[in-house]
Write a structure and sequence with these properties.
12 copies of one chain form a homododecamer. Chain A has one domain (about 5-65): Dodecin subunit-like (2-Layer Sandwich). Chain A is of the alpha+beta class. In chain A, strand 2 (about 35-50) and strand 3 (about 55-65) form a beta hairpin. The model of chain A has no long low-confidence stretch (mean pLDDT about 95). The longest helix of chain A has 12 residues, at about 20-30. Chain A has one helix at about 20-30, and strands spanning about 5-15, 35-50, 55-65. Chain A is built from 1 helix and 3 strands; from the N terminus they run E-H-E-E. The interface of G and J includes residues 19, 20 and 45 of G. Strand 2 of chain D pairs antiparallel with strand 2 of chain H, so a sheet runs across the interface.
């Protein structure tokens, strides 16, 4: 097994549906420009409110991928 | 754009259904007495257990709203 | 009411379905060997990624139970 | 069992006697205006010093109570 | 010297001018409804950006005042 | 002097009397099953409230002991 | 309103003048290569010292912008 | 009121009696060499264990005093 | 791929030689009673001092292993 | 380039004027007894309040200097 | 001396040999695409385990470099 | 066993060789002026970079010693 080096970037996904979907939306967007994504961890869960109810989940993740 | 001042209060919502619903229940209750709610962030996710299974999700949020 | 003593253990549940289910899977596994489970709190939410999409949610909880 | 919502407020109790009494003084004062207090957790323990000795314990607690 | 009890509230002040003024704006607004304010500590410094430049400083403070 | 290895477990002691006694109760219970206890550090101090007054101190400690 | 995804980058601005200017210098430099900047938060305030006096403010910010 | 400058030092007091006394012992020792002590805050509470019971409370404080 | 559940335990390894060896000593000891060890992370690096020089490195790790 | 050793001390500067000046006042006072000051980082920003307005900025810094 | 702006990126280096080498491997890889690297700080030290022994050190660093 | 009081100072050791040696260099320098050193804990590991490679390890420790 090789000695890999990974890079970590921080991304905020949003969703009107659920906090889990906010993460998935972040991954979907990131996968368009980043290859070899390996793991993520959630660092913050926020949301915007409109008319007294939840408008958007905003979930920040740190995303790790293999550096080529 | 004006220079607003916001107040932040800390609330714990609970739900038997999901951690997301615990947040929504907190917002629903808060919206009865607080107007101009703008954002929240999750500060803790806990739960109570009964008979070996999850009983209630208990999610603490900080809730920001415009001071009038 | 007695003066109980509780023990806290740290467990990571995983799920392909949702972050909430990762917690439930951790509780289900723990309940086979631990009795008198009382509460938990989430300490970390991570995930593994495969082919550019979420593979497994990995949620770490601290789990409290009454010491007999 | 219902799905309660709780509010958390932050209070600093002081005492010349002990750090524990500073917490009790905070609860005693808070109980005059807050009903349905359920739990607290200590977030900071400080003190003032006079003439080279401890003058007042100053203990900050977060105090949770049921929102009606 | 009496054994006072203090309450702490969390407020976000904003300013187009400076981070210090954001704190002062928070205090000015709070002083209209809160008496006996004693101290504050800064817990977060953020800002909004418009057209590539700083729009508003947003400074969160915890504000302590004597409970009567 | 040997190169020891220690294990750390997390325990919550409770007491109606004082926060110090909550720690001692945790140690007394732990000493029935754990030998070679060496040190502890307090990680959280909480309490339950009943009828507007403190019911139980709940103090969480990390407890270190020599692995045999 | 769309479900945006944001990226967060970490930048250190410096200034001989003030801590606020260090932030503004960071934004000015970043705006040359990053479009759609939306918000920042300060994560560290440091400084270098020369001849017993402040030489440069060094302020670290996390800077969020919309991913296209 | 003048613009004072304060220095903060970190000290660990110990006591066989109570965690509060460990703080007082730290202050008593410090007062022999430090004048103008103004405040302290507790940063860690630990203890050593002997024969299955608490031997010494070890409480770390940060201690502030006016620089002359 | 299955939905595994992992347990995390906290262990302190010591070594007179190096901080890395303190970790290896912790793993060597733990491997005698724990199977299926998967990962660790370092949570604290301390050391004892004797005669003005380093006596033992004391490195605390959290150790994750698959629950069977 | 030599292998220097640095010492870090913690100081609180105050100012009626600005948070930046509180840092400068701390450096000015420290420079009277400490030589070879190299860097600082801000660890806390507080303030005292009088008559509903800001009285003194109180900024805590960690100050690093070369040990001779 | 100019008012520089720095960027910080987060990288994970791995090594079978030592935790220090994991950092060096991260720097070696990063130096291929990043110029003007100035400093780093370690934010996490982890490792993977195989057959009961340490397989790879995984050390996360934040790496600062001058923005041109 | 007496009720000792300890003082904690913060020191940064540097080394071109290894992070462990940076700690040892800090202890060696400190031992010239401080007697009765008892323990340390590492609070930060940084490094300077020159020509794309590691120049100096810079390790910050808190160092505890018995107050006489």
């Amino acid at each position: 097994m090789e000695e890999h080096v990974y890079k970590i970037v921080e991304i905020v996904g949003t969703s009107e549906t659920s906090s889990d979907d906010a993460v998935k939306n972040a991954l979907a967007k990131a996968s368009k420009s980043i290859h070899n994504m390996r793991w993520f961890n959630v660092t913050e869960t926020r949301g915007s409110i409109q008319d007294g109810g939840l408008q958007h989940w905003q979930v920040t993740i740190k995303l790790g991928f293999t550096m080529k």
